[in-house]
Amino acid sequence: MTTLGLALCSAAVLGFRHGFDHDHIAALSDIASVQKDASHAMRLAPLYAFGHWSTIAILGTAVIRFKLVLPHGLDKLAERIVGTTLIALAVYVFITLLRQSPASVPKTRLTLLAQAVRIAFWRMRQLFTSKDLPKPQAAARNYDQRSVFALGILHGLGAETPTQLALFALAANLGGAMKGFLGLVMFLAGLLAVNTLIMAAVAGIFGASTLKPWLLKSATAATAIYSLVVGTIFILN
Questions:
Q1: Both ends of the chain: CA-CA distance in Å?
Q2: Residue 18 near residue 53 (C-beta atoms within 8 A)
Q3: Given this model, what pLDDT does residue 45 score?
Q4: What average pLDDT is seen over the chain?
Q5: How far is the C-alpha of 186 from the C-alpha of 156, rounded, in Å?
Q6: Model's pTM, two decimal places?
Q7: Measured between alpha carbons, how far is residue 72 from residues 33, 146, 215 in Å?
Q8: So what's the pLDDT on residue 102?
Q9: CA-closest candidate to residue 103, choices 192, 7, 219, 22
């Protein structure tokens, strides 16, 4: 195998390894835990990977093409943002499990955020009008293609993780912009593979537990605990 071939294989291995990062596992578990259909969860997994990779591709292209250095502290800021979303999810899932029946499926962060915005807007209108406006009702909203893609973009901001730094260094030294971008594509291939495997495993666990409500509740609680621990670690750096 040529030197270029070995380098591209290394980029794919880096993508495969990066897919096992804690935030990936927590995010994919989050998505799978609120799907009633395992096949739908499987269709969403590649979108998370593509969203995550799109951020990496933009930053990587800037590094390769313009020889830019990523801003110092970008990883710390990104980790705190991701950690905050994971903790918010964990707290909300725990509250949902305590208030609802064992067979119920927790709402997503997307639902929580949308409802919070509607209530805040409703309260603001109440301050500037004498009319008694009806309180907005909670809408049933699940992860769709756009929200999963956006979540991947957000989690891709942690650009200074060891695997991504190694990828940028490797891609920048492949010998030109086209070869460097090809290295980024190989990273995506590895990332797609491992994200699909993780989603298949998690969706399988939740799918099997739907026949036993107590098992579904236990699996969902375990997901929330994992998100809480990972989010705390990210915030505390």
A1: 40
A2: no
A3: 84
A4: 75
A5: 16
A6: 0.65
A7: 35, 30, 44
A8: 46
A9: 219
